[in-house]
Protein backbone atom coordinates (compact mmCIF):
# COMPACT_ATOMS: atom_id res chain seq x y z
CA UNK A 1 0.00 0.00 0.00
CA UNK A 2 1.30 3.38 -0.89
CA UNK A 3 0.02 6.87 -1.05
CA UNK A 4 0.75 9.44 -3.67
CA UNK A 5 0.82 12.18 -1.14
CA UNK A 6 3.06 14.47 -3.15
CA UNK A 7 0.39 14.76 -5.78
CA UNK A 8 -1.74 16.99 -3.64
CA UNK A 9 -2.50 19.86 -5.94
CA UNK A 10 -3.39 23.41 -5.20
CA UNK A 11 -7.08 22.64 -5.03
CA UNK A 12 -6.70 20.13 -2.30
CA UNK A 13 -4.46 22.41 -0.30
CA UNK A 14 -7.12 25.08 -0.51
CA UNK A 15 -9.74 22.65 0.64
CA UNK A 16 -7.57 21.71 3.56
CA UNK A 17 -7.32 25.33 4.55
CA UNK A 18 -11.07 25.59 4.52
CA UNK A 19 -11.47 22.39 6.46
CA UNK A 20 -9.06 23.59 9.11
CA UNK A 21 -10.88 26.84 9.58
CA UNK A 22 -14.10 24.87 9.82
CA UNK A 23 -12.55 22.77 12.53
CA UNK A 24 -11.50 25.86 14.43
CA UNK A 25 -14.99 27.21 14.11
CA UNK A 26 -14.05 30.16 11.90
CA UNK A 27 -16.27 29.29 9.01
CA UNK A 28 -19.73 27.81 9.17
CA UNK A 29 -19.18 24.25 7.96
CA UNK A 30 -21.24 24.02 4.79
CA UNK A 31 -24.20 25.95 6.06
CA UNK A 32 -26.47 24.34 3.56
CA UNK A 33 -25.69 20.90 4.90
CA UNK A 34 -26.38 21.87 8.45
CA UNK A 35 -29.81 23.08 7.58
CA UNK A 36 -30.33 19.98 5.50
CA UNK A 37 -29.59 17.73 8.41
CA UNK A 38 -31.57 19.60 10.97
CA UNK A 39 -34.83 20.56 9.37
CA UNK A 40 -36.72 19.91 12.55
CA UNK A 41 -34.81 22.46 14.55
CA UNK A 42 -35.46 25.05 11.90
CA UNK A 43 -39.17 24.40 11.73
CA UNK A 44 -39.50 24.24 15.49
CA UNK A 45 -37.94 27.66 15.69
CA UNK A 46 -40.41 29.04 13.18
CA UNK A 47 -43.55 27.57 14.73
CA UNK A 48 -44.18 27.12 18.43
CA UNK A 49 -46.45 24.18 17.71
CA UNK A 50 -43.75 21.88 16.38
CA UNK A 51 -43.30 20.62 12.85
CA UNK A 52 -46.11 19.04 10.93
CA UNK A 53 -48.15 19.20 7.78
CA UNK A 54 -49.32 22.53 6.37
CA UNK A 55 -51.73 23.09 3.53
CA UNK A 56 -50.81 26.48 2.20
CA UNK A 57 -53.23 26.27 -0.70
CA UNK A 58 -56.14 23.85 -0.51
CA UNK A 59 -56.19 23.40 -4.28
CA UNK A 60 -52.51 22.62 -4.52
CA UNK A 61 -51.86 20.31 -1.62
CA UNK A 62 -48.35 20.23 -0.26
CA UNK A 63 -46.73 16.95 -1.26
CA UNK A 64 -46.44 14.47 1.58
CA UNK A 65 -42.94 13.16 2.02
CA UNK A 66 -43.35 9.53 2.99
CA UNK A 67 -39.71 9.38 4.11
CA UNK A 68 -40.40 11.60 7.10
CA UNK A 69 -43.07 9.27 8.44
CA UNK A 70 -42.60 7.61 11.79
CA UNK A 71 -43.57 3.94 11.76
CA UNK A 72 -45.10 2.14 14.71
CA UNK A 73 -42.90 -0.87 14.02
CA UNK A 74 -40.72 -1.70 11.07
CA UNK A 75 -40.23 -5.30 9.99
CA UNK A 76 -36.57 -5.25 9.01
CA UNK A 77 -37.08 -7.20 5.81
CA UNK A 78 -39.26 -4.46 4.40
CA UNK A 79 -36.47 -1.89 4.65
CA UNK A 80 -34.72 -0.60 1.58
CA UNK A 81 -30.99 -1.38 2.05
CA UNK A 82 -30.14 2.14 0.93
CA UNK A 83 -32.47 4.47 2.83
CA UNK A 84 -33.13 1.95 5.63
CA UNK A 85 -36.82 2.79 5.56
CA UNK A 86 -39.77 0.68 4.41
CA UNK A 87 -39.89 0.50 0.61
CA UNK A 88 -41.51 3.34 -1.27
CA UNK A 89 -42.35 2.31 -4.82
CA UNK A 90 -40.10 -0.76 -4.69
CA UNK A 91 -38.12 -1.98 -7.71
CA UNK A 92 -36.37 -5.32 -7.99
CA UNK A 93 -33.13 -6.08 -9.81
CA UNK A 94 -32.36 -9.10 -11.95
CA UNK A 95 -30.13 -10.35 -9.12
CA UNK A 96 -33.15 -10.49 -6.83
CA UNK A 97 -32.59 -7.44 -4.63
CA UNK A 98 -35.22 -4.83 -3.98
CA UNK A 99 -34.81 -1.07 -3.42
CA UNK A 100 -36.95 2.03 -3.50
CA UNK A 101 -37.14 3.29 -7.04
CA UNK A 102 -35.62 6.66 -6.19
CA UNK A 103 -32.84 5.02 -4.16
CA UNK A 104 -31.67 2.65 -6.89
CA UNK A 105 -31.90 5.34 -9.58
CA UNK A 106 -29.90 7.72 -7.39
CA UNK A 107 -27.32 4.95 -6.94
CA UNK A 108 -26.93 4.69 -10.70
CA UNK A 109 -25.96 8.37 -10.72
CA UNK A 110 -23.43 7.85 -7.89
CA UNK A 111 -19.82 6.70 -8.43
CA UNK A 112 -20.91 3.08 -8.07
CA UNK A 113 -22.72 3.41 -11.41
CA UNK A 114 -25.10 0.85 -12.86
CA UNK A 115 -24.38 -1.87 -10.36
CA UNK A 116 -26.42 -3.54 -7.68
CA UNK A 117 -25.34 -1.95 -4.35
CA UNK A 118 -25.53 -5.33 -2.64
CA UNK A 119 -23.65 -7.69 -4.94
CA UNK A 120 -22.16 -5.29 -7.51
CA UNK A 121 -23.62 -7.14 -10.49
CA UNK A 122 -23.73 -4.94 -13.60
CA UNK A 123 -27.28 -3.84 -14.38
CA UNK A 124 -28.35 -2.61 -17.76
CA UNK A 125 -30.32 0.57 -17.36
CA UNK A 126 -30.80 3.82 -19.19
CA UNK A 127 -33.00 6.78 -18.40
CA UNK A 128 -33.95 7.06 -22.03
CA UNK A 129 -37.12 5.02 -22.36
CA UNK A 130 -36.88 4.62 -26.09
CA UNK A 131 -33.32 3.39 -25.89
CA UNK A 132 -34.23 1.02 -23.11
CA UNK A 133 -36.99 -0.40 -25.22
CA UNK A 134 -34.76 -0.79 -28.26
CA UNK A 135 -32.07 -2.60 -26.33
CA UNK A 136 -34.67 -4.57 -24.39
CA UNK A 137 -33.27 -3.61 -21.00
CA UNK A 138 -35.17 -5.23 -18.17
CA UNK A 139 -32.60 -5.64 -15.41
CA UNK A 140 -34.66 -3.57 -12.99
CA UNK A 141 -38.42 -3.75 -12.85
CA UNK A 142 -41.25 -3.00 -10.42
CA UNK A 143 -41.30 -5.40 -7.48
CA UNK A 144 -44.32 -7.69 -7.06
CA UNK A 145 -47.38 -5.66 -6.18
CA UNK A 146 -47.87 -7.58 -2.94
CA UNK A 147 -44.71 -5.92 -1.62
CA UNK A 148 -46.07 -2.43 -2.19
CA UNK A 149 -49.32 -3.52 -0.62
CA UNK A 150 -47.54 -4.77 2.48
CA UNK A 151 -45.42 -1.64 2.87
CA UNK A 152 -48.40 0.61 2.21
CA UNK A 153 -50.25 -1.18 4.98
CA UNK A 154 -47.60 -0.49 7.62
CA UNK A 155 -48.87 1.54 10.55
CA UNK A 156 -47.54 5.09 10.74
CA UNK A 157 -47.98 7.99 13.10
CA UNK A 158 -49.47 11.26 11.96
CA UNK A 159 -47.05 13.85 10.58
CA UNK A 160 -48.58 16.26 13.08
CA UNK A 161 -47.65 14.05 16.03
CA UNK A 162 -45.40 16.75 17.47
CA UNK A 163 -48.42 19.10 17.51
CA UNK A 164 -50.39 16.57 19.51
CA UNK A 165 -52.17 14.36 16.98
CA UNK A 166 -52.47 10.79 18.26
CA UNK A 167 -53.61 9.26 14.96
CA UNK A 168 -52.04 5.95 13.89
CA UNK A 169 -53.05 4.23 10.67
CA UNK A 170 -51.88 2.51 7.51
CA UNK A 171 -49.47 4.41 5.30
CA UNK A 172 -51.81 4.53 2.34
CA UNK A 173 -54.34 6.56 4.31
CA UNK A 174 -52.00 9.22 5.69
CA UNK A 175 -52.80 11.69 2.94
CA UNK A 176 -56.52 11.29 3.39
CA UNK A 177 -56.06 11.82 7.12
CA UNK A 178 -53.89 14.91 6.81
CA UNK A 179 -55.94 16.64 4.15
CA UNK A 180 -59.44 15.79 5.32
CA UNK A 181 -59.57 14.93 8.96
CA UNK A 182 -56.45 15.78 11.02
CA UNK A 183 -57.26 18.58 13.46
CA UNK A 184 -53.62 19.57 13.62
CA UNK A 185 -53.05 20.25 9.92
CA UNK A 186 -52.51 23.96 9.46
CA UNK A 187 -54.40 26.07 6.94
CA UNK A 188 -54.10 29.79 6.21
CA UNK A 189 -56.60 31.72 8.31
CA UNK A 190 -59.13 33.31 5.96
CA UNK A 191 -60.76 35.76 8.36
CA UNK A 192 -60.53 39.47 7.81
CA UNK A 193 -58.70 41.60 10.31
CA UNK A 194 -59.99 44.93 11.62
CA UNK A 195 -57.99 46.77 8.98
CA UNK A 196 -59.73 44.81 6.19
CA UNK A 197 -56.81 42.54 5.25
CA UNK A 198 -56.97 38.77 5.26
CA UNK A 199 -55.27 37.35 8.33
CA UNK A 200 -53.46 34.54 6.46
CA UNK A 201 -51.65 33.05 9.42
CA UNK A 202 -51.18 29.29 9.32
CA UNK A 203 -53.62 27.86 11.85
CA UNK A 204 -54.45 24.34 12.91
CA UNK A 205 -57.82 23.07 11.75
CA UNK A 206 -59.18 22.79 15.30
CA UNK A 207 -58.95 26.59 15.79
CA UNK A 208 -60.64 27.50 12.52
CA UNK A 209 -64.19 28.59 13.12
CA UNK A 210 -66.52 31.48 12.62
CA UNK A 211 -64.27 33.95 14.34
CA UNK A 212 -60.65 34.65 13.61
CA UNK A 213 -58.71 32.70 16.23
CA UNK A 214 -55.98 35.31 16.16
CA UNK A 215 -58.12 38.06 17.57
CA UNK A 216 -56.78 39.06 20.98
CA UNK A 217 -58.94 38.91 24.08
CA UNK A 218 -58.29 39.13 27.78
CA UNK A 219 -57.60 35.97 29.71
CA UNK A 220 -60.51 35.38 32.07
CA UNK A 221 -58.12 34.51 34.90
CA UNK A 222 -55.19 36.86 34.72
CA UNK A 223 -56.22 39.51 32.22
CA UNK A 224 -53.28 39.07 29.87
CA UNK A 225 -53.91 39.53 26.16
CA UNK A 226 -54.19 36.17 24.46
CA UNK A 227 -55.89 34.65 21.41
CA UNK A 228 -57.71 31.36 20.86
CA UNK A 229 -54.68 29.67 19.34
CA UNK A 230 -52.50 30.45 22.32
CA UNK A 231 -55.16 29.92 24.99
CA UNK A 232 -54.41 26.31 25.78
CA UNK A 233 -50.69 26.93 25.96
CA UNK A 234 -51.23 30.06 28.08
CA UNK A 235 -53.42 28.36 30.65
CA UNK A 236 -51.12 25.42 31.00
CA UNK A 237 -47.73 27.10 31.01
CA UNK A 238 -47.98 30.85 31.47
CA UNK A 239 -51.09 32.00 33.31
CA UNK A 240 -50.24 32.84 36.92
CA UNK A 241 -53.85 32.80 38.12
CA UNK A 242 -55.21 29.58 36.63
CA UNK A 243 -55.37 27.83 39.98
CA UNK A 244 -55.74 24.14 40.45
CA UNK A 245 -56.53 22.53 43.79
CA UNK A 246 -54.28 19.76 45.06
CA UNK A 247 -56.19 16.67 46.16
CA UNK A 248 -53.67 15.90 48.86
CA UNK A 249 -52.94 19.09 50.74
CA UNK A 250 -56.02 21.09 49.65
CA UNK A 251 -53.87 24.05 48.67
CA UNK A 252 -54.27 25.87 45.33
CA UNK A 253 -51.44 26.26 42.86
CA UNK A 254 -51.26 27.82 39.41
CA UNK A 255 -51.54 25.20 36.68
CA UNK A 256 -48.01 25.92 35.44
CA UNK A 257 -46.43 24.77 38.71
CA UNK A 258 -49.02 22.16 39.58
CA UNK A 259 -47.31 19.18 37.99
CA UNK A 260 -44.18 20.12 39.84
CA UNK A 261 -46.09 20.32 43.12
CA UNK A 262 -47.68 16.90 42.66
CA UNK A 263 -44.28 15.31 42.43
CA UNK A 264 -43.33 16.40 45.94
CA UNK A 265 -46.62 17.01 47.84
CA UNK A 266 -46.39 15.02 51.05
CA UNK A 267 -50.14 14.61 51.44
CA UNK A 268 -51.11 13.47 47.98
CA UNK A 269 -52.19 9.87 47.63
CA UNK A 270 -49.79 7.68 45.75
CA UNK A 271 -49.43 3.99 45.08
CA UNK A 272 -46.69 1.78 46.43
CA UNK A 273 -43.63 1.64 44.12
CA UNK A 274 -43.98 -2.15 44.30
CA UNK A 275 -47.42 -2.04 42.64
CA UNK A 276 -46.13 -3.49 39.39
CA UNK A 277 -45.11 -6.59 41.36
CA UNK A 278 -48.49 -6.90 43.05
CA UNK A 279 -48.65 -4.52 46.06
CA UNK A 280 -52.14 -3.12 46.43
CA UNK A 281 -51.30 -0.47 49.03
CA UNK A 282 -52.19 3.16 48.45
CA UNK A 283 -51.95 6.15 50.77
CA UNK A 284 -50.29 9.53 51.21
CA UNK A 285 -46.68 9.95 50.26
CA UNK A 286 -45.82 10.80 53.87
CA UNK A 287 -46.99 7.40 55.12
CA UNK A 288 -45.35 5.67 52.24
CA UNK A 289 -41.87 7.00 52.90
CA UNK A 290 -42.03 6.72 56.68
CA UNK A 291 -43.88 3.46 57.22
CA UNK A 292 -45.01 1.44 54.24
CA UNK A 293 -41.83 1.34 52.20
CA UNK A 294 -39.96 0.00 55.22
CA UNK A 295 -42.24 -2.98 55.66
CA UNK A 296 -43.50 -3.71 52.12
CA UNK A 297 -42.11 -7.03 50.86
CA UNK A 298 -42.54 -5.98 47.28
CA UNK A 299 -40.39 -2.90 47.74
CA UNK A 300 -37.67 -4.99 49.33
CA UNK A 301 -37.79 -7.45 46.47
CA UNK A 302 -38.01 -4.77 43.78
CA UNK A 303 -34.24 -4.74 43.24
CA UNK A 304 -34.31 -8.44 42.50
CA UNK A 305 -37.34 -8.07 40.27
CA UNK A 306 -35.69 -5.28 38.32
CA UNK A 307 -32.60 -7.40 37.82
CA UNK A 308 -34.73 -10.23 36.51
CA UNK A 309 -36.57 -7.87 34.26
CA UNK A 310 -33.42 -6.44 32.69
CA UNK A 311 -32.11 -9.97 32.24
CA UNK A 312 -35.31 -11.03 30.52
CA UNK A 313 -35.21 -7.97 28.32
CA UNK A 314 -31.59 -8.65 27.42
CA UNK A 315 -32.47 -12.20 26.49
CA UNK A 316 -35.44 -11.03 24.45
CA UNK A 317 -33.16 -8.59 22.62
CA UNK A 318 -30.62 -11.29 21.98
CA UNK A 319 -33.33 -13.61 20.80
CA UNK A 320 -34.58 -10.99 18.41
CA UNK A 321 -31.09 -10.39 17.08
CA UNK A 322 -30.42 -14.09 16.62
CA UNK A 323 -33.73 -14.54 14.90
CA UNK A 324 -32.97 -11.74 12.47
CA UNK A 325 -29.52 -13.16 11.86
CA UNK A 326 -30.96 -16.58 11.15
CA UNK A 327 -33.46 -15.17 8.73
CA UNK A 328 -30.69 -13.25 6.93
CA UNK A 329 -28.66 -16.42 6.68
CA UNK A 330 -31.67 -18.33 5.40
CA UNK A 331 -32.25 -15.61 2.87
CA UNK A 332 -28.67 -15.82 1.70
CA UNK A 333 -28.91 -19.56 1.40
CA UNK A 334 -32.11 -19.45 -0.59
CA UNK A 335 -30.60 -16.88 -2.89
CA UNK A 336 -27.50 -19.01 -3.11
CA UNK A 337 -25.34 -16.09 -2.20
CA UNK A 338 -23.59 -14.60 0.78
CA UNK A 339 -22.45 -11.03 0.80
CA UNK A 340 -19.29 -10.04 2.53
CA UNK A 341 -17.93 -6.51 2.40
CA UNK A 342 -19.79 -6.09 -0.83
CA UNK A 343 -18.30 -9.12 -2.53
CA UNK A 344 -20.64 -11.90 -3.38
CA UNK A 345 -19.46 -15.46 -3.16
CA UNK A 346 -21.12 -18.61 -4.30
CA UNK A 347 -21.77 -20.86 -1.32
CA UNK A 348 -19.63 -23.65 -2.75
CA UNK A 349 -16.71 -21.23 -2.99
CA UNK A 350 -17.08 -20.30 0.65
CA UNK A 351 -17.12 -23.93 1.65
CA UNK A 352 -14.11 -24.54 -0.55
CA UNK A 353 -12.33 -21.67 1.18
CA UNK A 354 -13.34 -22.86 4.60
CA UNK A 355 -11.58 -26.11 4.05
CA UNK A 356 -8.33 -24.55 2.89
CA UNK A 357 -7.96 -21.38 4.96
CA UNK A 358 -8.33 -21.13 8.70
CA UNK A 359 -11.56 -19.36 9.60
CA UNK A 360 -10.06 -16.35 11.33
CA UNK A 361 -8.34 -15.19 8.22
CA UNK A 362 -11.20 -15.94 5.95
CA UNK A 363 -12.72 -12.49 5.89
CA UNK A 364 -9.57 -10.44 5.99
CA UNK A 365 -7.91 -12.23 3.13
CA UNK A 366 -10.94 -11.60 1.02
CA UNK A 367 -9.44 -8.97 -1.23
CA UNK A 368 -9.70 -8.60 -4.97
CA UNK A 369 -6.55 -10.37 -6.10
CA UNK A 370 -6.99 -13.27 -3.80
CA UNK A 371 -10.55 -13.59 -4.81
CA UNK A 372 -9.83 -13.56 -8.52
CA UNK A 373 -7.08 -16.15 -8.06
CA UNK A 374 -9.38 -18.39 -6.10
CA UNK A 375 -12.06 -17.96 -8.71
CA UNK A 376 -9.61 -18.99 -11.45
CA UNK A 377 -8.44 -21.98 -9.48
CA UNK A 378 -11.98 -22.97 -8.85
CA UNK A 379 -12.85 -22.63 -12.51
CA UNK A 380 -9.85 -24.80 -13.46
CA UNK A 381 -10.88 -27.45 -10.99
CA UNK A 382 -14.38 -27.33 -12.26
CA UNK A 383 -13.37 -27.87 -15.90
CA UNK A 384 -11.00 -30.66 -14.86
CA UNK A 385 -13.81 -32.30 -12.95
CA UNK A 386 -16.13 -32.03 -15.94
CA UNK A 387 -13.51 -33.61 -18.20
CA UNK A 388 -13.04 -36.50 -15.80
CA UNK A 389 -16.76 -36.97 -15.55
CA UNK A 390 -17.14 -37.25 -19.33
CA UNK A 391 -14.22 -39.72 -19.44
CA UNK A 392 -15.90 -41.82 -16.80
CA UNK A 393 -19.15 -41.96 -18.71
CA UNK A 394 -17.27 -43.01 -21.87
CA UNK A 395 -15.64 -45.79 -19.90
CA UNK A 396 -19.01 -46.93 -18.67
CA UNK A 397 -20.25 -47.15 -22.26
CA UNK A 398 -17.25 -49.25 -23.28
CA UNK A 399 -17.86 -51.60 -20.43
CA UNK A 400 -21.43 -52.14 -21.55
CA UNK A 401 -20.27 -52.88 -25.10
CA UNK A 402 -17.78 -55.47 -23.87
CA UNK A 403 -20.37 -57.31 -21.80
CA UNK A 404 -22.74 -57.32 -24.77
CA UNK A 405 -20.03 -58.85 -26.97
CA UNK A 406 -19.23 -61.45 -24.34
CA UNK A 407 -22.89 -62.47 -24.12
CA UNK A 408 -23.09 -62.80 -27.87
CA UNK A 409 -19.94 -64.91 -27.80
CA UNK A 410 -21.49 -67.37 -25.39
CA UNK A 411 -24.57 -67.63 -27.56
CA UNK A 412 -22.46 -68.35 -30.61
CA UNK A 413 -20.52 -70.97 -28.70
CA UNK A 414 -23.75 -72.71 -27.75
CA UNK A 415 -24.95 -72.70 -31.29
CA UNK A 416 -21.62 -74.08 -32.40
CA UNK A 417 -22.01 -76.95 -29.94
CA UNK A 418 -25.42 -77.71 -31.29
CA UNK A 419 -24.11 -77.68 -34.82
CA UNK A 420 -21.27 -80.03 -33.93
CA UNK A 421 -23.68 -82.40 -32.24
CA UNK A 422 -25.97 -82.38 -35.25
CA UNK A 423 -23.05 -82.89 -37.55
CA UNK A 424 -21.74 -85.89 -35.59
CA UNK A 425 -25.17 -87.52 -35.51
CA UNK A 426 -25.46 -87.05 -39.26
CA UNK A 427 -22.03 -88.57 -39.74
CA UNK A 428 -23.09 -91.58 -37.69
CA UNK A 429 -26.21 -91.95 -39.78
CA UNK A 430 -24.21 -91.79 -43.01
CA UNK A 431 -21.76 -94.36 -41.76
CA UNK A 432 -24.63 -96.58 -40.73
CA UNK A 433 -26.23 -96.23 -44.18
CA UNK A 434 -22.93 -96.90 -45.91
CA UNK A 435 -22.43 -99.99 -43.83
CA UNK A 436 -25.93 -101.15 -44.62
CA UNK A 437 -25.45 -100.61 -48.32
CA UNK A 438 -22.16 -102.41 -48.36
CA UNK A 439 -23.71 -105.28 -46.56
CA UNK A 440 -26.58 -105.48 -49.07
CA UNK A 441 -24.27 -105.25 -52.06
CA UNK A 442 -21.95 -107.91 -50.78
CA UNK A 443 -24.96 -110.19 -50.28
CA UNK A 444 -26.10 -109.54 -53.85
CA UNK A 445 -22.70 -110.21 -55.31
CA UNK A 446 -22.33 -113.35 -53.35
CA UNK A 447 -25.59 -114.60 -54.71
CA UNK A 448 -24.67 -113.81 -58.36
CA UNK A 449 -21.18 -114.98 -58.57
CA UNK A 450 -21.06 -118.05 -56.46
CA UNK A 451 -20.46 -120.56 -59.29
CA UNK A 452 -17.23 -119.00 -60.47
CA UNK A 453 -15.78 -118.35 -57.11
CA UNK A 454 -12.52 -116.91 -58.44
CA UNK A 455 -14.16 -114.30 -60.52
CA UNK A 456 -16.56 -113.53 -57.78
CA UNK A 457 -13.83 -113.03 -55.33
CA UNK A 458 -12.06 -110.65 -57.67
CA UNK A 459 -15.26 -108.75 -58.48
CA UNK A 460 -16.12 -108.74 -54.78
CA UNK A 461 -12.80 -107.23 -54.13
CA UNK A 462 -13.55 -104.67 -56.79
CA UNK A 463 -16.80 -103.65 -55.22
CA UNK A 464 -15.17 -103.53 -51.97
CA UNK A 465 -12.74 -101.13 -53.40
CA UNK A 466 -15.49 -99.08 -54.79
CA UNK B 1 -33.02 13.54 -1.06
CA UNK B 2 -32.63 15.67 2.03
CA UNK B 3 -35.26 13.99 4.16
CA UNK B 4 -33.77 10.72 3.13
CA UNK B 5 -30.36 11.64 4.42
CA UNK B 6 -31.80 13.04 7.56
CA UNK B 7 -33.92 9.95 8.05
CA UNK B 8 -30.96 7.76 7.33
CA UNK B 9 -28.85 9.34 9.99
CA UNK B 10 -31.75 9.34 12.39
CA UNK B 11 -32.48 5.71 11.74
CA UNK B 12 -28.97 4.42 12.24
CA UNK B 13 -28.42 5.04 15.94
CA UNK B 14 -31.21 2.67 16.81
CA UNK B 15 -31.26 0.79 20.11
CA UNK B 16 -30.35 -2.44 18.34
CA UNK B 17 -26.96 -1.06 17.43
CA UNK B 18 -25.44 -2.15 20.67
CA UNK B 19 -27.32 -5.38 20.94
CA UNK B 20 -26.14 -6.55 17.55
CA UNK B 21 -22.47 -5.75 18.16
CA UNK B 22 -21.63 -5.20 21.82
CA UNK B 23 -18.03 -4.29 21.04
CA UNK B 24 -19.19 -1.28 19.01
CA UNK B 25 -20.82 1.65 20.71
CA UNK B 26 -22.34 4.61 18.96
CA UNK B 27 -21.85 7.66 21.15
CA UNK B 28 -24.78 10.01 21.60
CA UNK B 29 -24.41 13.07 19.43
CA UNK B 30 -26.35 16.28 18.95
CA UNK B 31 -24.89 16.85 15.52
CA UNK B 32 -26.30 14.36 13.05
CA UNK B 33 -23.46 15.19 10.71
CA UNK B 34 -20.70 13.96 13.05
CA UNK B 35 -20.92 10.62 14.76
CA UNK B 36 -18.43 8.77 16.94
CA UNK B 37 -18.15 5.05 17.49
CA UNK B 38 -16.08 3.44 20.24
CA UNK B 39 -14.64 0.12 19.25
CA UNK B 40 -13.03 -2.74 21.11
CA UNK B 41 -11.22 -5.60 19.42
CA UNK B 42 -11.87 -8.84 21.26
CA UNK B 43 -9.49 -11.77 20.87
CA UNK B 44 -6.52 -9.87 19.49
CA UNK B 45 -3.71 -9.08 21.97
CA UNK B 46 -2.36 -6.43 19.56
CA UNK B 47 -5.32 -4.18 20.32
CA UNK B 48 -6.01 -4.02 24.07
CA UNK B 49 -7.46 -0.47 24.06
CA UNK B 50 -10.72 1.12 23.07
CA UNK B 51 -10.45 3.04 19.82
CA UNK B 52 -12.63 5.85 18.60
CA UNK B 53 -13.84 6.22 15.02
CA UNK B 54 -15.19 9.52 13.76
CA UNK B 55 -17.71 9.57 10.94
CA UNK B 56 -18.44 12.82 9.15
CA UNK B 57 -21.54 12.43 7.05
CA UNK B 58 -20.98 14.01 3.65
CA UNK B 59 -23.60 15.81 1.65
CA UNK B 60 -24.39 12.94 -0.72
CA UNK B 61 -24.48 10.24 1.91
CA UNK B 62 -25.40 7.40 1.48
CA UNK B 63 -24.57 7.70 -2.20
CA UNK B 64 -21.07 8.92 -1.37
CA UNK B 65 -18.93 7.53 1.46
CA UNK B 66 -18.68 9.34 4.82
CA UNK B 67 -15.31 10.58 6.08
CA UNK B 68 -14.04 7.89 8.40
CA UNK B 69 -10.95 7.99 10.55
CA UNK B 70 -9.65 7.11 14.00
CA UNK B 71 -9.41 10.07 16.38
CA UNK B 72 -7.63 10.90 19.60
CA UNK B 73 -7.60 11.10 22.64
CA UNK B 74 -7.96 7.36 22.18
CA UNK B 75 -4.88 5.68 20.69
CA UNK B 76 -4.67 5.11 16.95
CA UNK B 77 -4.40 1.36 16.38
CA UNK B 78 -1.19 0.13 14.80
CA UNK B 79 -1.99 -1.60 11.54
CA UNK B 80 -0.29 -1.68 8.12
CA UNK B 81 -3.35 0.06 6.65
CA UNK B 82 -3.83 2.74 9.29
CA UNK B 83 -1.71 5.90 9.27
CA UNK B 84 -0.69 7.46 12.53
CA UNK B 85 -2.98 10.46 11.86
CA UNK B 86 -5.93 8.06 11.97
CA UNK B 87 -6.56 7.74 8.25
CA UNK B 88 -7.63 4.28 7.16
CA UNK B 89 -6.80 2.70 3.85
CA UNK B 90 -9.79 0.49 3.11
CA UNK B 91 -11.33 0.39 -0.33
CA UNK B 92 -14.97 0.39 0.80
CA UNK B 93 -14.39 3.86 2.26
CA UNK B 94 -13.38 5.23 -1.12
CA UNK B 95 -13.83 3.65 -4.57
CA UNK B 96 -15.48 0.55 -3.22
CA UNK B 97 -18.29 2.40 -1.45
CA UNK B 98 -21.81 1.11 -1.94
CA UNK B 99 -24.96 2.94 -0.81
CA UNK B 100 -26.01 -0.25 0.95
CA UNK B 101 -23.23 0.27 3.49
CA UNK B 102 -24.10 1.93 6.77
CA UNK B 103 -22.08 3.33 9.62
CA UNK B 104 -22.48 0.00 11.32
CA UNK B 105 -21.29 -2.15 8.44
CA UNK B 106 -18.30 0.16 7.96
CA UNK B 107 -17.42 -0.08 11.64
CA UNK B 108 -17.75 -3.85 11.47
CA UNK B 109 -15.46 -4.02 8.44
CA UNK B 110 -12.81 -1.97 10.19
CA UNK B 111 -13.20 -4.08 13.31
CA UNK B 112 -12.70 -7.29 11.38
CA UNK B 113 -9.72 -5.77 9.59
CA UNK B 114 -8.10 -5.16 12.98
CA UNK B 115 -9.19 -8.46 14.50
CA UNK B 116 -7.44 -10.48 11.83
CA UNK B 117 -4.18 -8.53 11.83
CA UNK B 118 -0.92 -9.93 13.17
CA UNK B 119 1.46 -7.33 11.75
CA UNK B 120 2.16 -4.56 14.30
CA UNK B 121 3.53 -1.93 11.94
CA UNK B 122 2.52 1.35 10.37
CA UNK B 123 2.10 1.63 6.60
CA UNK B 124 5.11 2.33 4.42
CA UNK B 125 5.76 6.07 4.13
CA UNK B 126 3.67 6.85 7.21
CA UNK B 127 5.59 9.99 8.27
CA UNK B 128 5.68 11.37 4.75
CA UNK B 129 1.94 10.82 4.40
CA UNK B 130 1.04 12.37 7.72
CA UNK B 131 3.14 15.46 6.95
CA UNK B 132 1.32 16.12 3.68
CA UNK B 133 -2.07 14.49 4.03
CA UNK B 134 -5.25 16.56 3.73
CA UNK B 135 -7.38 16.60 6.85
CA UNK B 136 -10.20 14.98 4.93
CA UNK B 137 -9.16 11.41 4.12
CA UNK B 138 -11.48 11.41 1.10
CA UNK B 139 -9.03 13.76 -0.63
CA UNK B 140 -6.15 11.29 -0.27
CA UNK B 141 -5.42 8.91 -3.04
CA UNK B 142 -4.81 5.47 -1.68
CA UNK B 143 -3.58 2.58 -3.74
CA UNK B 144 -5.39 -0.59 -2.82
CA UNK B 145 -2.76 -2.99 -4.02
CA UNK B 146 -2.07 -4.97 -0.89
CA UNK B 147 -4.74 -7.49 -0.19
CA UNK B 148 -2.80 -9.65 2.17
CA UNK B 149 -3.95 -8.08 5.41
TrEMBL record, chain A:
Alphabetized SUPFAM superfamilies for the sequence: RING/U-box (SSF57850), TRAF domain-like (SSF49599)
Gene3D superfamilies cross-referenced by the UniProt entry: Zinc/RING finger domain, C3HC4 (zinc finger)
InterPro entries for this protein: Znf_RING, Znf_RING/FYVE/PHD, Znf_RING_CS
Gene Ontology MF annotations: zinc ion binding
Bias type Polar residues, positions: 455-466
RING-type domain sequence ranges: 80-120
Alphabetized UniProt keyword annotations: Metal-binding, Zinc, Zinc-finger
Chain segments carrying region Disordered: 445-466
Lineage: superkingdom: Eukaryota
PROSITE patterns, A to Z: ZF_RING_1, ZF_RING_2
PANTHER family found in the cross-reference section: TNF RECEPTOR ASSOCIATED FACTOR, TNF RECEPTOR-ASSOCIATED FACTOR 4
Protein name listed in UniProt: RING-type domain-containing protein
Organism: Ogataea haglerorum
From TrEMBL, chain B:
Chain spans, region Disordered: 1-22
Domain UBC core as annotated: residue spans: 1-149
InterPro entries: Ub_conjugating_enzyme, UBC, UBQ-conjugating_enzyme/RWD
Keywords: ATP-binding, Nucleotide-binding, Ubl conjugation pathway
Pfam families in the cross-refs: UQ_con
CDD domains with a match to the protein in the record: UBCc_UBE2W (cd23808)
SMART domains: UBCc
Compositional bias of kind Basic and acidic residues: 1-17
PROSITE patterns referenced in this protein's UniProt entry, alphabetically: UBC_2
Superkingdom per UniProt: Eukaryota
Name of the protein: UBC core domain-containing protein
Organism listed in the record: Ogataea haglerorum
Lineage: Eukaryota, Fungi, Dikarya, Ascomycota, Saccharomycotina
